[in-house]
Specification:
The chain is an alpha+beta fold. It contains two helices and five strands; from the N terminus they run ββββαβα. The strands form two sheets. Strands 3-4-5 form a three-stranded antiparallel β-sheet, covered by helices on one side. Strands 1-2 form a two-stranded antiparallel ribbon. The mean pLDDT is 93.
């Protein structure tokens, strides 16, 4: 899968900085090291529960 034309290596779910919600991020470390993107990951979405964040990340991985 690509975001803005750049290949996504993986999708991860993790607690947000506030620890009350969970976020899903698209990992693009290789593109970052090559200078193709400004940051090593891209925010995808924020979820109210960890289970939902994990389901979203799993679904996105399956779509690759």
């Amino acid at each position: 899968m690509k975001i803005n034309g750049v290949k996504v290596e993986n999708f991860v779910s993790e607690p947000s900085s506030e620890r009350s919600t969970f976020v899903v991020r698209a990992i693009q470390h290789n593109a970052f090291w090559r200078g193709e993107v400004a940051l090593p990951s891209t925010f995808v979405c924020e979820c109210d529960t960890e289970d939902m964040a994990k389901m979203v990340a799993k679904a996105l991985k399956g779509a690759q």
